[in-house]
Known about the structure:
The complex is a heterodimer.
Chain A: E1 13-20, H1 37-56, E2 66-75, E3 81-85, E4 97-98, H2 99-104, E5 107-116, E6 122-131, H3 143-160, E7 168-173, H4 183-191, E8 193-194, E9 197-198, E10 200-205, E11 214-215, H5 226-233, H6 240-248, E12 260-262
Helix pairs in contact in A: 3-4
Chain B: E1 7-11, E2 23-28, E3 39-47, H1 55-68, H2 80-95, H3 103-111, E4 114-115, E5 117-124, E6 132-139, E7 143-148, E8 151-156, E9 171-172, H4 179-183, E10 186-192, E11 197-201, H5 203-214, H6 219-224, H7 228-240, E12 249-255
Helix pairs in contact in B: 1-2
Amino acid sequence: xxxxxxxxxxxxxxxxxxxxxxxxxxxxxxxxxxxxxxxxxxxxxxxxxxxxxxxxxxxxxxxxxxxxxxxxxxxxxxxxxxxxxxxxxxxxxxxxxxxxxxxxxxxxxxxxxxxxxxxxxxxxxxxxxxxxxxxxxxxxxxxxxxxxxxxxxxxxxxxxxxxxxxxxxxxxxxxxxxxxxxxxxxxxxxxxxxxxxxxxxxxxxxxxxxxxxxxxxxxxxxxxxxxxxxxxxxxxxxxxxxxxxxxxxxxxxxxxxxxxxxxxxxxxxxxxxxxxxxxxxxxxxx
Amino acid sequence: xxxxxxxxxxxxxxxxxxxxxxxxxxxxxxxxxxxxxxxxxxxxxxxxxxxxxxxxxxxxxxxxxxxxxxxxxxxxxxxxxxxxxxxxxxxxxxxxxxxxxxxxxxxxxxxxxxxxxxxxxxxxxxxxxxxxxxxxxxxxxxxxxxxxxxxxxxxxxxxxxxxxxxxxxxxxxxxxxxxxxxxxxxxxxxxxxxxxxxxxxxxxxxxxxxxxxxxxxxxxxxxxxxxxxxxxxxxxxxxxxxxxxxxxxxxxxxxxx
Lengths: 286, 257
């Protein structure tokens, strides 16, 4: 059965994040006053990496169940594309670090958060929050080139780990590629495969439209504009094993659900992967 | 009647080091309680949830506590399990280096560690020298199998490979999060006789066992033939053939003589 490979240190999983850092990302995010798309893009990456790290944490140490890569894409003022690997010491050819290395380079901030007081109320407490990416945005959107370079990096990773759970690409963008139609490049990524199945392409669409957030839809007709519909078409259908884990976390998904969110939380995707026995309270961590 | 010294075999998930194995057990045999006691063995197996933090120490505390100060099995349903858990929960909490936990472990540590518990007590039957009484208690998916005359006569608490998943009810080291495990306590009891074999297995091994039994195999034959020299290779082969999930695996065999 595909998408059933064990995820362990000897058979790691892989996440590659592609972050749109183009000028349109400075626009306000729909329905969330004071929040720009680029703020949300950085937040999505930071929260998703935080979730991955927490899942790999044993308390004091981290087990290297995942390899992580992150690439940003934008252009200069003359339209020349800039696709760069965002993790220190990496390149677009070799963008991956072990999750323990990613944890080591986090900037840890203290932030006030409101949490349940256990008696039905909320209490404000200070918690440590890891930050890897700060908001940044300028000029054009070379999404096609980013997908192509991401695909090449993943090919190298798959050659090293041919039996692993297939790599997962998470593209965080408002759509609007300025270097062509990205659909074919996304299909190219989805055509890559390990022995356990095809690479998974997921998209977090950040839009200025203030319509209802959408999480893991099954059809593009529910989406409000062509940019969202295009990113939906560039998203993989959630594998059955992901869907059954989503169901145990009370996240509504159907057989047609794709790895696509519209102005909505994406980090729950991290919990769709099986890395071992989770208890009754793991789902409540976030 | 007596018990053959229990045989134990344990191996971590492939990719992990032996000291990272989150299965824990404690066995006291032969049990000496003094003249008034009738228990002759207590055996506990606990499987710490791999996604929880500090689960290994919690699993060991549960196994130790079951053997050293067993819960009152006649009274578990009424809430006494919480009283029984409390000293162990405090011990776990005291052992956590709260001021040194990195950010990634903080939320998990606050939520508490999680582990299964399978406890087996074997005791003398009043007025009979031809049988022994046994009682078992379980929370989660660590399983007990009783094999008699080459037949499986008890499978507890699960009896079908389809019942295993990644979200079993578990006992939590944080009292605030222990309600689900508390509601999931299962108990059973019976008598055993010469030649009976008790097999205790953590989930991946137990799931393999039940899948084999479902297709009319006798999986205990393979397990009873294993020794320390062959165990690792046997588990690895089963994982390689996708017949067993890659997870910590523990086997305990108790034979009634």
